[in-house]
Amino acid sequence: MAWFKKTRTPIASTSEKPSRVPEGLWVKCPGCAQVIYNKDLEKNLQVCPKCSHHFRISAADRLRSLFDDGRWTEHFPDLISNDPLKFTDTRPYRDRLRGTIAKTGMNDAVIVATGALDGADIVVAAMEYSFIGGSMGVVVGEKITRAIEMALERRQPVIIISCSGGARMMEGALSLMQMAKVSAALARLDRARLPFVSILTDPTTGGVTASFAMLGDLNIAEPKALIGFAGPRVIEQTIRQKLPEGFQRSEFLVEHGMLDLIVDRRDLKATMSRALQFMRAEAAQPVEPPPVPVTSGTSSEPTR
Amino acid sequence: MPPDTLEFEEPIAVLLKEIEALSMLPQTVERQGLIDELNQRIESIRADIYARLTPWQRVLVARHPNRPTVLDYVNRMFTDFTEISGDRRFADDRAMVAGFARYKNEPVMIVGHHKGAGGDTKQKIFRNFGYARPEGYRKALRAMKLAEKFSRAVIAFIDTPAAYPGVESEERGIAEAIAFNLREMAALDAPIVVVVHGEGGSGGALGIAIGDRILMHEFAIYSVIPPEGCAAILWRDSSRKVEAAEALKLTAPDLLGLGLIDEIVPEPTGGAHTNHELATSLLDSALERALGEVSAMDSAARLEARYQKFRAMGNIGIEGE
With 80 as the cut, is the pLDDT of residue A202 above it? Predict the structure, then answer.
């Protein structure tokens, strides 16, 4: 027998399977292994009827579930990236973009929509994960900024539904600056006393979390969504340990005070409705700058 | 190779060794002439190399251990520096420096990342290698709010590999800390000049880098992800970092061309690390001008201009209406 034993195991990669939008007639739930009839799953907003596992859903399905009668008006759908860096890794970004546009029928990873939620007019930006991991490049940044500015003009609430791996590497520092751009617009929305609800779904990481996703008046997450800044693999490499079960999941973030609540997808619309009634955009008055005290010097009257 | 020379500076290292050997021998006029000649050759080789650095070589220069830190600049350029500590929430973060000082006799607030200078491992650990935690960003914002309260300008020094990617960072809300800074700095009613003087590492850099003027040093870098990380993800091979550095367009001239910075601050030939004194005076003149310009604006106009500045970023990459 050896005197010394290797006790440290090499870093194991997290081996969880990504939840996918199911195809085919029957789907096996990754949460409870139950085999579910696809139509039933659809009726249930892609939530497993047995264990409530939340399958990922598309931006369009999300909007359908929130807006009254599933109807909305889309804005700025034609904005498209021109590959400003002429970026090429193992294949040109231009080709990757073209392929994704053909596959998804979208020009980039977010839909901006207006419509009514239980009668209240709202502006929604919903991110689409199947478009290059929902990553935020210049088009996503611009569309979300326009959505916020539109809400400022119309004095309506903003809801952003995040589903994104973070900033889009293929647009370099231009992507990074979208964090600043969107956050600056949210500063104006905040000062105008208009509501902003951030809905975080699986996954919400990187530059999206470190900008608008964490800035909601309310931050609401779906159950067991991966939410964080650094990716779990990067953290494992830093600390050279395997991460605990449930780290960077919605429940972990609630426990650490970063989220207001976790809401089952089937209850989201009702929760939103209650929240918007509390936050009442229609009565909103912008924050007045504090009164400047009179500095005449001669008057001994106390200023307010 | 001497420890401070970078891999692409080998021709310089060879000559430095020769000089070292010569100076060990007894000094003669002839020998001194030889040394002077070698020094001149070093200067011309250095000028030649630095005139056409590749993006990856710039990454190495930006990360040079002897590159001036925020405190090097503060000690040379400012007077009466008083460091302040803590986020009033959890802890003090030594990877982030904050404090007030005088610049051209005018009180200002300084915030900046600090990686730990030189090859001193102890200091590097003390500064967590410049990886700031949530409390660092919160401390910086607290300092900036002080500046706002007393109508003083803010000067932010950017030099960090990234925000700290650890368990406690996530637990204490690193994403929220950065996001909140982005929002609050966009609306902070005080002149802000940002100096990206070393490594502009992604969100960790941006978290204190919203301002009215963004200056960037000639050999500094500013990127959405480190080249190594980008290579690991897109090429599935971190050794492709040289290509990734190329593709990411992370150099000062690239960022100026993309409209993401306002001005490039020239560095001494061979990089700021070779001559802190000269590097400081080069920054000094750029900073004085930038600060003068933004301080002269009235606050509503300045805030509007700041908004429009970031509002326009990225629009060169968009087509369609």
Answer: yes
Whether residue A140 sits in one domain with residue A31: no
| CB nearest to A210's CB, from B179, B311, B321 | B179
Contact: A190, B183; criterion CB under 8 Å? yes
Predicted complex: ipTM over 0.90? yes
> Residues B189-206: what's their mean pLDDT?
98
Q: Which of B311, B317, B212, B201 is nearest to B261 (CA)?
A: B212
**Element spanning A136, H or E:** none
The verdict on A125 and A159 lying in the same domain is: yes
Residue A292 in any domain: the answer is: no
CA–CA gap between residue A288 and residue B17 (Å, rounded): 67
Same domain membership, residue A89 and residue A40: no
- Stretch B197-222: mean pLDDT, rounded? 98
- Cβ burial B56-73 (10 Å sphere, 16+ → b, else e): bbbbbbbbbebbbbbbbb
**Which residue in chain B has the smallest CA separation from A145?**
B311
A125 and A260, same domain (yes or no) = yes
**Closest approach of chain A CAs to the CA of B249, in angstroms?**
7
| Inter-CA distances, B258 with A87, A166, B71, B234, B281, Å | 14, 21, 30, 22, 27
Q: What is the pTM of this model?
A: 0.91
Tell me whether B317 touches chain A (CB under 8 Å). Answer: yes
Does A130 share its domain with A249? yes
Nearest to B186 among A184, A230, A258 (CB): A184
Among B128, B117, B125, B112, residue whose Cα is nearest residue B74: B112
Instruction: Round to whole Å and give the CA distance between A291 and A293.
Output: 6
pLDDT band at A301; cut points 50, 70, 90: very low
Give, for A161, the enclosing helix (H) or strand (E): strand A158-164
In whole angstroms, what is the distance from residue B145 CA to residue B9 CA? 44
Q: What is the pLDDT averaged over residues A249-257?
A: 97
Which residues of chain A lie closer than 8 angstroms to B166, CB-CB? 230, 235, 238-239
- Give me the half-sphere count of Cα atoms (radius 13 Å) on the Cβ side of residue B235: 19
**Residue B231 DSSP symbol:** I
